Amino acid sequence: MTDKQLKFYCEAEFENIEKVLAQLSAVIGDKKDFSVPDLAAIATFLHNVYNGIENILKRVLVCEGGEIKDSPAWHKELLLAGVDKGIVTGDLCELLARLLSFRHFFVHSYVFVLKWENLKPLVEDIFSVYDTFRLSVTRRIEKGS
Fold first, then answer.
1. pLDDT tens-digit readout, 43-71
2. Is the pTM of this model over 0.90?
3. What is the pLDDT at residue 144?
4. If phi over 0 gives left and psi between -120 and 50 gives alpha, with beta otherwise, what is residue 29?
5. Low-confidence residues of the chain, pLDDT below 70?
6. What angle do CA 135, 141, 144 make, to 5 degrees?
């Protein structure tokens, strides 16, 4: 994959993530109380954002010669490889690790166990986490071009 193709791929993923974030904002609005379907939508949007971030991180690492090993812990290993390669800072890694942990919970649980008080901190951070990640990746790609 060329630098131009990588940039195009990442821009498409960023666009998709931003569409998800817009939907997340629409669901949350100025509500204080959320139904189970609301919480399911919020959780799905958080999951989608993290998946998009992982997709980008995988593609950047592979394009730079990194290897994604197929193991039970590959999600965590991917995040740590992003830190090792300087794509993700330690602070950003901590925030992304919280989303990764949530992703695992979400995939393996039922929506009726979701609680707003558990989702709220993730929702409060998701926009700045995304902005920080996007800036880091964009700088990385432009540096490589």
1. 999 999 999 999 999 999 998 887 788 88
2. yes
3. 64
4. left
5. 144-145
6. 140
| Sign, CA torsion 57/15/50/131 | positive
- Give the dihedral sign, CA 11/12/14/18: positive
What is the model's pLDDT at position 70?
A: 82
Long-range contacts of 111-114 (CB under 8 A, 24+ apart): 111/36, 111/39, 111/40, 111/43, 112/36, 114/36, 114/39, 114/40, 114/42, 114/43
Confidence (pLDDT) at 71? 81
The phi, psi pair for 110, rounded to 5°, reads -105, 150
Helix 90-107 × helix 116-144 angle, to 10°? 130
CA–CA distance, 137 with 78 (Å, rounded to integer): 15
State whether CATH 3.50.50.60 applies to domain 3-144.
Answer: no
Residue 142 confidence (pLDDT) = 85
**Structure-token pair, residue 68:** 């994604």
